[in-house]
Amino acid sequence: MRLDKKAIYPVQEWDITEQSFERENNYRNETTFSLSNGYIGTRGTFEEAYPFDIDTGLEGNFVNGFYESEKIRYGEANFGSPLFSQSLLNLPNLKETRLYLDGEEFDMEQGTVEDYQRVLHMKEGILSRELVWHSPRGKKVKIKIKRLVSFEIKNIMAVCYEVTPVNFSGDIRFVSRLQADVENHTRKTNPIVDYGPFGRKLEPLQLFGGGNRLYYKGMTQNSRLVAACGSSHRIFTEASGVEVPGIEAPGVEASDAEALNVEIPDVEVPDVEAWTESGELDAALTLQMSGCEGRKIVLEKMICYTTSLDMREDELEGFVKKTLDTADRLGYRELEQAQKRYMQGFWDVADIEIKGEDSRALQQGIRFNLFHILQSAGRDGRTGMGAKGLSGEGYEGHYFWDTEIYVLPVFVYTEPGVARNLLDYRYHMLDQARARARILGHEKGALYPWRTINGEEASTYYPLGTAQYHINADIAYALSLYLQVTGDVEYLKEKGAEILIETARVWADVGHFAENKGGKYCICCVTGPDEYNVLVDNNFYTNLMARENLRDAAAAVRYLSEKDPESFGELKERLAFSEDELELWERIIENMYFPYDEERGVYPLDDGFMTRKPWDESRIPEEKRAWLYENYHPLFIMRHRMSKQADAILGMYLHSNLFGEELRRNYDFYQEVTLHHSSLSTCIFGIVACDIGYYDEAYRYFAESARMDLDDHHNNFYAGIHAANMAGTWQAIVNGFAGVRCQNSKLRFKPWLPKSWEKYSFQLRYRDNLLRVKVTKDSAEFVLEEGESIRFCVNKTEVSIDEKGGKHIEKI
Amino acid sequence: MRLDKKAIYPVQEWDITEQSFERENNYRNETTFSLSNGYIGTRGTFEEAYPFDIDTGLEGNFVNGFYESEKIRYGEANFGSPLFSQSLLNLPNLKETRLYLDGEEFDMEQGTVEDYQRVLHMKEGILSRELVWHSPRGKKVKIKIKRLVSFEIKNIMAVCYEVTPVNFSGDIRFVSRLQADVENHTRKTNPIVDYGPFGRKLEPLQLFGGGNRLYYKGMTQNSRLVAACGSSHRIFTEASGVEVPGIEAPGVEASDAEALNVEIPDVEVPDVEAWTESGELDAALTLQMSGCEGRKIVLEKMICYTTSLDMREDELEGFVKKTLDTADRLGYRELEQAQKRYMQGFWDVADIEIKGEDSRALQQGIRFNLFHILQSAGRDGRTGMGAKGLSGEGYEGHYFWDTEIYVLPVFVYTEPGVARNLLDYRYHMLDQARARARILGHEKGALYPWRTINGEEASTYYPLGTAQYHINADIAYALSLYLQVTGDVEYLKEKGAEILIETARVWADVGHFAENKGGKYCICCVTGPDEYNVLVDNNFYTNLMARENLRDAAAAVRYLSEKDPESFGELKERLAFSEDELELWERIIENMYFPYDEERGVYPLDDGFMTRKPWDESRIPEEKRAWLYENYHPLFIMRHRMSKQADAILGMYLHSNLFGEELRRNYDFYQEVTLHHSSLSTCIFGIVACDIGYYDEAYRYFAESARMDLDDHHNNFYAGIHAANMAGTWQAIVNGFAGVRCQNSKLRFKPWLPKSWEKYSFQLRYRDNLLRVKVTKDSAEFVLEEGESIRFCVNKTEVSIDEKGGKHIEKI
Asked: Count of CB contacts below 8 A, A vs B?
C-alpha cells in the first residue's frame, strides 16, 4: 500500500466505517458507500437529501443500460464520428425520507450528533447508519437506517429506518419523497466531454402518490427510453415495552386502504395518519404518528425501478406495483436475509484471505474491491459493466475493454454465470458491431465500439477511441478464457463461435503482408491500450492479441466443423463464411509481424516507439506530472518515448505461455518508460513481476492497487470506482502471487508467498470443480471442494485430484 | 486542360464573359465575377439582390482580417484545442440598387432580357454588365452597370449604373439599400465544421440615411470588432441629345443639401427627388427623376468599408465620410482610370503570354488565375491571404501555408512589395506564434498556426491542423526566397532574422538525435502536407524543410553577426539567443534523418509509409473516389499506402538543388501512389516532371491546373477560388517550363517549350532588375528591361547582361 497515503477509513476486515459526517468528504464517500446489484445503482447519499453543490455531492440513482443521448458537436466532425452521445442517466431519487420530531427536522448539520457511524457491511451487502441526535430544541433520538440493493430481486432497493425517541414523547413524522427533478453532473464527473446530458432529461409521463405508494414514469427527451419507479412504505412499532428483534411484519394505517392493496396482518401497528401530495416533478408521502419515549418506530420502504428496456411501456406500471407487492410481502428482514445468503455464496468462492504483516489493511482493500466488482456487473445478458460500475457518472457510465480484460477473468474463475452474462451482452451487440465495421471500411466482420452503452460507438475522439481496435481481441480473449475455464462447449456453439469469427474477420482485413517487413502481416494506424502512443503502426499488444483472436477463431471453426458440422454449417451459411478465410487466417497467424529491437532484445511498443524523443520528467512541473492530457497538447505527449500504462507487458501477461526469458528484458525496458498514469497499469506490472521473480516490485505494485480506491489515490473517487484496477487486485494475487494461468485449456499454478505474509488462500472454479488453494511459506495446498476430478500443474508438477475433498500439497 | 471538361465561358484572351443569366450557375458565377483589392472583397452578385437560397447564391462582402468568433464545442477537447473560432464575416451589403421604371421593378427573371453580357475585364480590373430589358408591361430599357473594387483607395468599391429608356419616357427610380441583415452560409461553404457564425453576428451601433448617403456601424457579438460602411450617390444625365462620353461630373438634387456636403458643379443634372428611410437593419436611399426616351441616366455609387482593426472606433464615421468625399471628388471615371493604370502596371510585369495550339484557352486560364491572385493578397502588412482570397466564405476565410508556398513566390518575382506585405503579416503575428509554441510544449521559439486570421490557431482538428508543423518552415522558405530574389538586407535585419530564428528554435526542440536511427535527428508525430498520412514520424518534406529553415536561420545569424553586430546584438538579447543554439542547429543540419527505401532508392513519405496497406481503388465506388474524408473514416484512409497530394515531391521541387538523378525515381514512385485529391498537387508534379524531362506529363498537369477553377473541376468553386492552384499555374510555367529557380541566391533557368506552342514569354523582377524572358522553339531570349546588370544561369551557361535593354539569346 502506498506509504504516503494514510488509510481514510479505519482498517477493518469486513467493514468500511465512516466515523463522522464531514461535508468535505461527502462526495468521495458517496462512492465508497454506493450500493448496486448490477442493475440498480445508488450512491451513498443520505435520506435527509442535503443540498450539496456540484463540488460536494451528487445524488445518483442509475439503472444499468438506461441512457440519454445528446447530439454531439465537433469542432470538425469526421466520417463515422458518433453523432449522438450515450450517458448513463441519473434517475429520480426515492431514497429521500425526512424525519420530523414534533415539527423539528432531523438534520445532521443542526443540533448535535453523537455515536455516529456509517458502515458498509461488505460481508452482508448492507449499508447501515447509526447515530444519536440532539435536536436544537433538546430532543434526543436514536436513529438507525439500513439500506440494501437486492441481489434477489434486481428491481428492488430496500430501506429500513428506525427511530427511537430517547427523552421525549411526541409527534413523529416521516416525509418520503419521490424527487424527479434530477440531472447529471456532467461538467464535474466527465469534464473532458462537452456534450450533455445537461439539465433534466426525463419528461414525466405519470407521477402520483396514493395510499402508501409513490409512482413515477418518465421518458428521456432524445433516446426515448421510459423509466418507471415507485416506492412502498410500511410503519410498525415495537410492541409496548417489548423489544422486537428486527422487523416483524408489515403495517400501516393508511388513509386509503384499497389503494394500499396490502394485507394487514394481526400485529401491533401504530396509529398512522398518511397523506400524499404531488407536484409536477415530485410527490411526497407523509406518515405521521405519535412516538413514545423509548419505543422504536420503524419505517420499511421498498423502492422499485424498471425501464422500457425490459418490457413494453404499458407494462411498466403493473410491473412496479407487482414487484413492490412482492417486496412488501417479503419485508425488509427477509430481503436482508436473502442478501446475506447471496453474499455468503459469493464470498465463499471469491474471497481471498491473507494473513501477515499489513494484511488487515490489504485484506480490507481486497474485499472492498471485490465487493464493488460484484456490485457492478450487469447480470441480465442485456447489460455490460461500466468502467465505474453504477457507482457514479464518470466516463458517462460507458462500458470499455476494462470489463473483458480486467473484470471478466475474476468472474470466470468465481462466478462463471456472471461472466457468461457479460459475454451475452457483447453477443447481443454483434449487429451494431457489424455496422461499425462497415463504417470503418471492413466489408466483413464486426468491430466492437471502444466505449458504449447501447452497442454503438460513443467515443468522440477516435485517436483514443475507435482506433483502439484491440477491443475486438480483448472480447475474444475473455470469451476464450471463459470457454477454457468452464469448458462450456454449448456456449461456443450458440454464441461464442460467432463472436470469434466476426472479430477475426476484421483482423484479417485491417492489415496486409507488407513487403518492406519481409512479407509479415502488419497492422497500421491503431491505438493500443497505451493512450500516450496514439495512431501507431504495429502496436505489439494489438498484433499479438489479433493473432490470438485469429487463432481462437480458426480453432473454433475447425472444432465445430468436426464436432457439430450440421449446426456449424448453418452458422457458416448465415455468416457467408468460406474456407478461403480460414486459409488467410492461417497465413496471418504464421506471419504476424512484431516490432523488435535487436540491440535490446525487446519488443518496442510499436514501430515508431524507439524513434520518439526520450521523456525528460524534469521538464514537467510536479503538479502536472500525473495529468498530462490536462496540461499538454496531445502532440507533445505523442512525440515522446514513454508509456502511460501496461501495453506490450499486458499482452505478455495474457499470453505468457508464448514468452520465455525475454520477458525479463521487456519488463525491465517497460519499467523504465512506463508512467503508470492509468489505474489499469500497476496491477499488470505486479503480475509480470511475479512471473520473472521480481517479488519486491510485485508486492509494491500489488499494494498500490489494493487500496487505490479505498484511499483515493487518484483523487477522483467521487466520480466512481475504478473497476478495472479493483479486479486487477484479485488478479494480482491469483494470477500474480499464485501464478494462475489457463492457457491451451490447461490450468497451472506457480505459487509464491510475499515474505511478510504467513499465508493466503482463495478458491477457483474450474470446469465443474471448486478448488481451494492455500499458499504458505513452504507449501501450496490444493483441496477439491466441489467436483470429482481435476487436473492442473504446479510449477513443473502435473497434479490430479480425483475425489471430492481430495488434497494435494506441493512444496514451494 | 482537361479534355472531359468543356469550357464554361467563351474562350477569350482577357475577358470572362457570362452570356446569359441562369439561376443554376449563379452560385459558381458569383465567385468567377468576384472582385477584390486584397482588402474589400465582394462576390459577383447582382444589384437587384435576387433572393437566392443557400444552394444557389450568397451575397458576400468581406473585409480582410475582419472576423467573428464563436465558442467551439468539441466531442472531446484536448489541451490546446482552440476555444474560439475565427470566421471571415459577411458584412452589410451596399451594392443593392433596385431600378423602377414607372413603378415596374427591373428583374431579369421577369419580362425579357436581350443582349445580355456580363464581363470580367481582367485587363482593366472591372466587372461590367450590359443588357436590354423588356418589362412585362412593354417598356424597353438599356442597362449598363460597371463595378470596381479600387486598388487606388483600399476602402472603396465603386459602381456606375447607366439606364437608357429606349421606348418610353417616365419616372425612373433607383432605390439603393444598405442591408445589414446578413449572415454567413457556414453550413454550405464549410460543411465540415460545426461552429458558427450562424445567423447575423453584427449588432448595429449606428444606421442612418441622410442626403445622398447611407451609413452603418456595427459590432460583432463575440470578437468585438467594429465595422463601418457607407455609400454615397450621385446622379447625372446626358446633356439632352448629346452623347456624353463616360461620366462627366457629380450631380444630385438632394432633399437635404447640407447633409450632402458635395460641391455641385455647373453641369447638367436632372431634377432628382431623394429621400432616405431606415429600419433597424437596413436603410434605403430613393432617387427619383423623370427619364426621357433615349436619354441616359447615370447613378454613380461609392461604397466605403473600414473597421476598428485600422483605427479607433470613434474615428470610423469620420473616416467613412472623408473617404466617400474623396471618392466622390474623383468620380467613377477617375477611379476607373486609376484602376486601369494599376492593372496595366501589374500585367506589364506579371503577365505570361503564350502562343500555340490550345493557347487561347490556357492563356485565359492563366490570366484568370493571376487576376484572382492579385485580388486576393492582403497588402497592408496586417492581413494575409485566405486560401480562397476574399471571394467567398470557404475555409472560413482562413490563411494557410498556401500563401507562402504557392502564392508568395509569384509576388516575389512580380510584385515584391506585396510579397513583403504578406511577410509583414507573419512578422506581426510572431507573438501569437510564440504563445502557441508554449502551448505545444516548446520553451523557446514560435510555432505558426495552421489556419488563422488573427494569428491564433483556428484549426479544430489537430491531426490535420496543428500537427502540420511544416507551416513554420514554409514561412521561412518564402521569406528566404524573398530575401534571395530581392536582396532586401534591410528586411532581414528588421524582421526576417527574427522570424527565421524563432521558427528554427521549434525545429531544434521538437525532435531529437535518435539512437535507433544512427543518432540522426528525427521528428515524430507531425503531419506533412499530405492530409491522408497523418501524425507520422519523419515526414520527408517536414524534415527537409525544417533542416533548410535551420540552415537559413543559422546563415542569418552568422551574416548579421558579422555585418551588423550591434543591431543584431540587440535582437539576440531580446530573444535571449545563445551561441549554443547555433551549435545545436549545426548538428541538426548535419544529421537530419530522412526515411529511405534502399530497394527502390526513394524517399518514402515518412517512416511508416511503406508499411501501410496498398491502396485498392477498385474497392472504392467511383462516386466516392474524390471524396475520401466525406465517405471513409480517417483510420481507413490513414492505414492505406497512398498520398493525397504532392508532399515529398514538393520538397524536392523547392530544394531541387539538393537532388540529382534520384528525383526521377522518386517522381515515378509518387506518381503511382498520389491521388491528387488536393488542388495543390498537380501544379507541383508538373514542375518536377519538367525537371526530369517528363514533358508530356508536365504539360498535362499544367493544363489541368490552368483552368481548374475557370472550368470548376472540383465542383466547389461557389465557395471561393483555389488560390494556391491559381498561383501554381504561374509556377508551372515559370518554375516548370522555364525551369526558374533561385537557390543559394543564384537565379537559373532551364527553359523548355511545350511542343504544341510557338512561344511563351514572361517577366521577372530580380534584385533591381526586370528581366523579360521569351522562350521559342530553339531559343530562350533574355532582355534586361529595367536595371543595369544581372547575372543568371541558363542550363549550364553563366549569363550576365550589363546594360539596360541588353539581351542574351540561348539556344535550347
From this structure: 179
Checking B131-137 for CB contacts under 8 A at 24+ apart, the result is B132/B166, B133/B106, B133/B108, B135/B101, B135/B104, B135/B106, B135/B110, B135/B111, B136/B104, B136/B110, B136/B111, B137/B104
Residue B359 has a CB neighbour count (10 Å cut-off) of: 20
Beta-carbon-side half-sphere exposure of residue B464 (alpha carbons within 13 Å): 16
Read off the pLDDT of residues A389-435 as tens digits, 9 standing for 90 and up: 999 999 999 999 999 999 999 999 999 999 999 999 999 999 999 99
3-state DSSP call for residue B214? strand
Residue position matching grid coordinates 473517487: A717
ipTM of the complex: 0.94
User: Residues in chain B, how many?
Assistant: 812
B435 touching A (Cβ < 8 Å): no
Mean residue pLDDT of chain B comes to 94
Three-state DSSP at B228 gives strand
In tens, the pLDDT along A464-486 reads: 999 999 999 999 999 999 999 99
CA dist., res. B268 & res. B251, Å (int)? 8
Contacts of B77 in chain A (CB under 8 A): 192, 194
Residue B255 confidence (pLDDT) above 70 = no
Query: Is residue B531 flagged as an active site residue?
Result: yes
Residues 445..504 of A with a Cβ closer than 8 Å to B: which?
A: 460-464, 466-467
Separation between Cα atoms, residue A794 and residue B19, nearest integer Å: 91
Task: Quote the CA–CA distance of A322 and A304 in Å, as a whole number.
Answer: 10
Residue range A332-351, pLDDT digits in tens: 999 999 999 999 999 999 99
B residues 79-98 closer than 8 Å to A (CB) = 79-82
Report the pLDDT value the prediction gives residue B239, as an integer from 0 to 100: 54
How confident is the model over B337-359, as a mean pLDDT? 94
Cell 477516435 belongs to which residue?
A462
Q: What is the pLDDT of residues A739-789, one digit of tens each?
A: 999 999 999 999 999 999 999 999 999 999 999 999 999 999 999 999 999
CA separation for the pair B295, B291 (Å, rounded): 7
- Chain B residue whose CA is closest to A195: B75
The torsion of the CA quartet A542, A547, A553, A556, rounded to 10 degrees, works out to -130
**DSSP-assigned beta bridge partners for residue B288:** B173, B273
Sheet of B226-237: strand order equals B15-18, B112-121, B126-134, B140-149, B156-165, B297-307, B226-237, B213-220, B202-210
The per-residue DSSP string of A76-119 comes to B--TT--SB--EEPPPPB---EEEEETTEEP-TTSSEEEEEEEE
Cα A578 to Cα A23, A306, A499, A575: the distances in Å are: 63, 44, 16, 9
